[in-house]
Known about the structure:
The structure holds two protein chains of two kinds. By secondary structure, chain A is an alpha+beta fold. Chain A has one domain (12-58): 2-Layer Sandwich (Alpha-Beta Plaits), CATH 3.30.70. Chain A has helices spanning 20-24, 54-58; strands spanning 30-34, 40-44. Chain A has a two-stranded antiparallel sheet. In chain A, a hairpin with a 5-residue loop joins strand 1 and strand 2. Chain B is α/β, with parallel strands linked by helices. Chain B has two domains: 4-120 and 197-263; 127-186 and 283-316, no CATH class. Chain B is 37% helix and 19% strand. Chain B contains 13 helices and eleven strands. Chain B has helices at 13-18, 24-34, 58-62, 77-86, 97-107, 127-141, 153-156, 177-183, 214-217, 235-244, 273-282, 285-293, 301-316; strands at residues 4-10, 38-44, 50-55, 91-95, 114-119, 145-149, 163-167, 172-175, 206-210, 228-232, 248-252. Chain B has an eight-stranded mixed sheet, with helices on both faces. A three-stranded antiparallel sheet of chain B has the order 6-7-8. In chain B, a hairpin with a 5-residue loop joins strand 2 and strand 3 (50-55). Chain B is globular, with a radius of gyration of 21 Å. Chain B starts with a strand and ends with a helix. The mean pLDDT of chain B is 95. The chains are: A alpha+beta, B alpha/beta.
Amino acid sequence: MNKEKIVLFEKKQECCGCTACAAVCPAQAVTMQPDEEGFLYPVINEEKCLHCRACIGVCPFKD
Amino acid sequence: MIYGVYAAIHNDRNIVSASQSGGAFTALSDVILDMGGVVYGCVLDRTFRAVHMRADNKAQRDLMRGSKYVQSDLGSTFSQIKADLAAGRTVLFSGTPCQTAGLKKFIGDKGERLYCADIICHGVPSPAVWKSYLKWQQSRKRRRITDAVFRNKEGHGWHSHFERISFEDGTEVSSNVYANVFYGHHPLRPSCFSCPFKSLERQGDITIADCWGIDKIAPELDDNTGISLMLVNSQNGQELLDKAGDNMVLQPIDIENVMQPCLKEPFPEPEDRDVFWQEYRTKSFGYIARKYGRYGADRTPKMLVKRAVGKIRRIIR
């Protein structure tokens, strides 16, 4: 499996905070955390991440 | 594809009063609850934070009525819905188009019993700004807040946009400071300015919203108590509406007559969005309220003179 670090979004404009990535993660490696503006964004715990890319596949901003 | 467009008013006037528009969400969710299903929607919790909750009865569902002008915290809603569907329950989810899109992608082909009602979304403001606003109202009043309503239709009519904050001593504040800050678009989430869902290609089986523009085409329906707009976007949506339709007056309308900016394209990002956030972080909320919320705009020297002249005129008349 590709062990490349998963990037859910490069710019904040590319994440609506819908939680699908956090819900789909089989390792519970994705948690929603507030940024300095108070919006929730997914943060990947690299130690738990299986690099399965399920989070990328479920993102509604990646079509 | 759009199956149908309707102006909708619930037959029960009490439900219309308790709803933001014409009671469409109540009519749809009643169908789901009556068949033993569960409903997910946004409520304000005890600390006035917008969160998604699960309802399996009407009392819990009733808390989901009324628009919230702040992004909700979905928590583990998506996983709960997956579990409900796996247990054979019928589910109605209501939320923003992007939340609905994420949910549908997450549930995938296991969603035969999942119904989605998305709203026509203007954009979601930061929960932090909403919290700061409430803190500011509380500190001005020096009383604990006991209730908060984003759009007080009761006091000002459906067409207006004033928030109502209630305090422990029974007093209330009617204000449009938060509404003004919201309509400036500075506190909206960055993704709202490139939202791919602001179109007639809807995410929900049914889209619910305020039926703005109805006063131009069917003024007889508009007594300023509230009318829902319903877009039926799928066969599932049509089936749901067929069952809910008995409880509403449904008037088919032409989408062209009720088009809203948020069905066309996202708003541009304000050029001074960074300035807003810089000021939000470094200055008091009173400053934000004055600059972006037009707080005190009726207390400028010019307005005070105008008011005084008006008063004197009335006295000497």
